[in-house]
C-alpha cells in the first residue's frame, strides 16, 4: 500500500522560518465582544448569588434538586417545578492544582480548583476555586464552605463567591 | 440496509505547524485516500467532512471553507460535529449515506489546523465552558481532565505510575508511525518528572497540539467488492451524548462511552467484546483516558484497565493490542484528524498492511473510539475483515 512505501505529505514549519519571514503569514486580532443573556434559570441563580445564597430547581418527577438550576429537567424532559435554596457548603468531589492559565501560560502561584457537591443539591454541583488550604492537605470528601465577597462588591456573578474553604460542619467554623 | 465497507485510507504528516492551509491539508489526505483504492473524485457521490472548533481557525464557516479540498465541489457535503469525538462521528455519517442507498461512495475527510490560534490554541478551549458560570473562573481544558483523572484514580485506588505506562507505550508505538511528530522512548520516571501542568496531569500525560488531516473512502458492498479483495466492513456504529452539566456527573466512569459501545456491539453482533475484538484504538488525548475508555468500552472491568496495561495485555504483541498506531500521545492530536487516524489504523491492521505497526495473529475485528466536548461524547465504530 502507498502508506508504507511513499513519504507522507505535509510541510512542517519551524519557528525560525516563520519569524524570519521565510513564509508569509497574516495576523488578524479578533476584537468581537459578546453580551450573553443569562436566561431565566441562571439569571435567578446569579441574582441569588448577589444576595449571598445558592438556589436550585427541583424536579418533582425525578426528585432531583438541580444546581446549576434549569427550567426544564433534561432527564424527565418536563418543566422543573419549584425553586429551592440549597446550602453554601458542600463536599469536594474532585480537586486539582493548576499551574497554567486559561491560555496555557505558566503562573507562579498555582490555583486550586474543585468540583463541589453542594449540600442540598442532587449530585455534583459547581466548578469553583478553593482557598485557605494547602494543596497537599486537600482530599476528596472534604467539607467546604463558600467564602463570599462583601455584599456591596457582589455583582450577580459566579465570582461573588471568592472560593470555598475547608469547613468543620459540626462547629461551623474553618477546619 | 446495505453492507458498508472502508476501501481506502490516507493521511498527511502530523505537525506542530504546517505550511499548508486547512483546505490544502484536506486535499493531501483526501487525494491519497482516493489513490489508495484507485478512485477519482468523479466516483465520489458524497462527502462527510470533520473538523473541531472553528475558534482554532478564526474561520466561522469551516466546513464550507474546507469543502473544496475535501472533494466537496458540486456534491452533498455534511459536517457533523462532536468536538474531539468528531473523527469517529464522520464514518458514522458516511455509513448513513451508504447504508441508506443515498450514496455508493462517500469520501470522509477530517482536518485540523490548531497552530493558527495565538498565543496558544488552549485559549480557544475557554469558549467550550459554560459561558455564564464557568468562563469567569478562566478554566483551561486541562482542568476538567485533571479533575476527572483524580476522581478516577481515587475511586479505584490507581497510582500515577500505572497511568504513566500508557504514555510510555503509546509514544513508543508512535515511533513506527510515519505521521508522528511526538514519538519517543520514555520511561515512567520521565512522565512523573515532566512539568506539572494541572495536577495530577504532567506534560507527558498530554497529547500535543497538531496540524494534519486524515481521510477514508467508504463504499457500498458491490462497489467495495469490485475495488478490493479485502474490504473492511463497518459492522457497528454507535454514539452517545451525556449532559453538558459535567459537574453533575459521575466523573469516575464514562457511561456515555458504554452506551455508544453497546449500540455498536448490538448492531455488530458483539456479545463478548473482550473475546471478539482483536485490536482497539480508543481515544487517548491524555494517558488516563485510554484506561477510562477501555473500561467504558467494556474491554476491562471498572478500575482494572491499569492492571491489564501493566500485565502487557495492551502492548502490540499482547492479547488485546491497544493504540498500536501510537495514538494521540504517540502520533499527534490534530483533533478531528486524530480520531479518523484511528479508523485508518484499524483499516490497515485488519488488512495486514500496518507494516512495522502490524499486530500479530491476523486480527479480524477492530474498534475505533473517540471522545469529546465537555467529557460527554462517545463515538464508536466496529470494523471487520472476512
Write a short abstract of this structure.
Chain A is mainly beta and 175 residues long.
Note down, in words, how this protein is organized.
The complex is a heterodimer of chains A (175) and B (386). Chain A has one domain (40-174). Chain A is 11% helix and 35% strand. Chain A has 3 helices and 11 strands; from the N terminus they run αααβββββββββββ. In chain A, the strands form 3 sheets. Chain A has a 6-stranded antiparallel β-sheet, with no helix packed on it. The N and C termini of chain A lie far apart (65 Å). Chain B is α/β, with parallel strands linked by helices and 386 residues long. The two termini of chain B are 19 Å apart. Helices cover 35% and strands 18% of the residues of chain B. Chain B is built from 14 helices and 11 strands. In chain B, helix 3 packs across helix 14 and helix 6 packs across helix 11 (287-296). The chains are: A mainly beta (175), B alpha/beta (386). The interface between A and B is large, with 56 and 64 residues. Strand 6 of chain A pairs antiparallel with strand 5 of chain B, so a sheet runs across the interface.
Number of E-state strands of chain A: 11
Show unreliable segments of chain A.
none
Strand content of chain A: 35-45%
Largest interface, with counts of residues having CB < 8 Å to the other chain, equals: A-B, 56 and 64 residues
Distance between the termini of chain A: 65 Å
User: Main β-sheet of chain A: number of strands, strand sense, barrel status?
Assistant: 6 strands, antiparallel
Provide the domain count of chain A: 1
Report low-confidence residues of chain B grouped into runs of 5 or more: none
Approximate helicity band of chain B: 25-40%
Mean pLDDT across all residues of chain B, rounded?
96
Determine Rg of chain B (CA atoms, Å). Answer: 19 Å
**Helix coverage percent of chain A:** 10-25%
Instruction: Give a count of the beta strands of chain B, DSSP E runs of length 2 or more.
Output: 11
| Strand order in the sheet with the most strands of chain A | 8-7-6-9-10-11
Amino acid at each position: 500500500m502507498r502508506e508504507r512505501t511513499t513519504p507522507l505529505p505535509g510541510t512542517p514549519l519551524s519557528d525560525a522560518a516563520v519569524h524570519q519571514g521565510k513564509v508569509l503569514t497574516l495576523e488578524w486580532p479578533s476584537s468581537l465582544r459578546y453580551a450573553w443573556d443569562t436566561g431565566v434559570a441562571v439569571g435567578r441563580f446569579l441574582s441569588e448569588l448577589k444576595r449571598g445564597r445558592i438556589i436550585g430547581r427541583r424536579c418533582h418527577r425525578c426528585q432531583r434538586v438541580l444546581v446549576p438550576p434549569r427550567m426544564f429537567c433534561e432527564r424527565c424532559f418536563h418543566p422543573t417545578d419549584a425553586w429551592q435554596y440549597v446550602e453554601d457548603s458542600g463536599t469536594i468531589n474532585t480537586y486539582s492544582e493548576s499551574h497554567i492559565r486559561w491560555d496555557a501560560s505558566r503562573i507562579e502561584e498555582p490555583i486550586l480548583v474543585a468540583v463541589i457537591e453542594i449540600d442540598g443539591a442532587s449530585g455534583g454541583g459547581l466548578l469553583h476555586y478553593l482557598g485557605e488550604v494547602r494543596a497537599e492537605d486537600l482530599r476528596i470528601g472534604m467539607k467546604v464552605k463558600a467564602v463570599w465577597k462583601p455584599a456591596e462588591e457582589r455583582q450577580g456573578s459566579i465570582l461573588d463567591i471568592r472560593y470555598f474553604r475547608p469547613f468543620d460542619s459540626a462547629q461551623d467554623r474553618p477546619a | 440496509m446495505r453492507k458498508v465497507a472502508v476501501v481506502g485510507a490516507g493521511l498527511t504528516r502530523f505537525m506542530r505547524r504546517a505550511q499548508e492551509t486547512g483546505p490544502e491539508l484536506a486535499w493531501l489526505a483526501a487525494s491519497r485516500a482516493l489513490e489508495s483504492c484507485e478512485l477519482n473524485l468523479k466516483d465520489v457521490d458524497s462527502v462527510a467532512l470533520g473538523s473541531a472548533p472553528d475558534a482554532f481557525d478564526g474561520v466561522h464557516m469551516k466546513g464550507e471553507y474546507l469543502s473544496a479540498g475535501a472533494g466537496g465541489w458540486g456534491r452533498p457535503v455534511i459536517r457533523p460535529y462532536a468536538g474531539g469525538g468528531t473523527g469517529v462521528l464522520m464514518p458514522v455519517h458516511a455509513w448513513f449515506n451508504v447504508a441508506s442507498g443515498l450514496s455508493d461512495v462517500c469520501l470522509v475527510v477530517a482536518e485540523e489546523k490548531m497552530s493558527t490560534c495565538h498565543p496558544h490554541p488552549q485559549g480557544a478551549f475557554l469558549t467550550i465552558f459554560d459561558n455564564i458560570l464557568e468562563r469567569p473562573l478562566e478554566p483551561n481544558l486541562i482542568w476538567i481532565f485533571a479533575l476527572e483523572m483524580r476522581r478516577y484514580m481515587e475511586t479505584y485506588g490507581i497510582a500515577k505510575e500505572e497511568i504513566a505506562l500508557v504514555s510510555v507505550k503509546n509514544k513508543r508505538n508512535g515511533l513506527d508511525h510515519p505521521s508522528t511528530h511526538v514519538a519517543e522512548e520514555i520511561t515512567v520516571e520521565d512522565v512523573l518528572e515532566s512539568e506539572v501542568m494541572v495536577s495530577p496531569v504532567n506534560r507527558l500525560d498530554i497529547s500535543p497540539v497538531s496540524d494534519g488531516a486524515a481521510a477514508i473512502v467508504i463504499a457500498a458492498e458491490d462497489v467495495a467488492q469490485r475495488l478490493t479483495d479485502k474490504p473492511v466492513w463497518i459492522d457497528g456504529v454507535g454514539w452517545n451524548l451525556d449532559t453538558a452539566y459535567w459537574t453533575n456527573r459521575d466523573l469516575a466512569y464514562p457511561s456515555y462511552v458504554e452506551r455508544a459501545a453497546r449500540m455498536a456491539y448490538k448492531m455488530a453482533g458483539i456479545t463478548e467484546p473482550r473475546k471478539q475484538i482483536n485490536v482497539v484504538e480508543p481515544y487517548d488525548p491524555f494517558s488516563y483516558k485510554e484506561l477510562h475508555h477501555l473500561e467504558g468500552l467494556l474491554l476491562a472491568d471498572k478500575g482494572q484497565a491499569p492492571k491489564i496495561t501493566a500485565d502487557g495485555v495492551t502492548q502490540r504483541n499482547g492479547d488485546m493490542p491497544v493504540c498500536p498506531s501510537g495514538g494521540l500521545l504517540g502520533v499527534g492530536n490534530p483533533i478531528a484528524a486524530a480520531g479518523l487516524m484511528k479508523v485508518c489504523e484499524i483499516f490497515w491492521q485488519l488488512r495486514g498492511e500496518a507494516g512495522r505497526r502490524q499486530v500479530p495473529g491476523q486480527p479480524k475485528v477492530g474498534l475505533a473510539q473517540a471522545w469529546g466536548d465537555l467529557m460527554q461524547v462517545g463515538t464508536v465504530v466496529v470494523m471487520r475483515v472476512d
